[in-house]
Amino acid sequence: PGCPPNPELLLLLIAELMGDPAGKAKLIVCAECARKPSKDPVGLFQISPLPGADPGKCLTSLGLACMGFVTKGGCGAPCTSNGTPCWGCRGPSLPVMKKIAVGEYYEEVFVKGLSQRCKVEEASTKAQVRVLRRQGHALYDFDHETSGNAMRYR
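Above: the chain's sequence. Below: its structure in token form.
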């Protein structure tokens, strides 16, 4: 799912297939995003930025449930650059894939990471992500046991 590949991405793929180490994509979308994170805690997560939000500030730091830190890089971060949170359409990053391979759930990894990045208690983050899902926020689910949008905490 997501945007069709842009020409630069296709050139990166060809370079990578030819063995060019410079052709490797960034590990995560955040590494390609020009927005800068802040160290301020976030109070409430939302789907879109509030009017007057700092256009250079990381979307996660603005309280958006942006999935750029768990999503495979290589897209050039067009969504986040234009003020839309990453929804994970490129799939999980390699570190996240390794966690899924040993039994962790994608959404659990996302919620833990979001809690740490935003300095919000994990229980609060989990509850807010559930609300966002009910409101129609499309968080892609890449678990090996996908069954709809249910949270899979044990």
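Confidence is low (pLDDT under 50) at residues 146-154.
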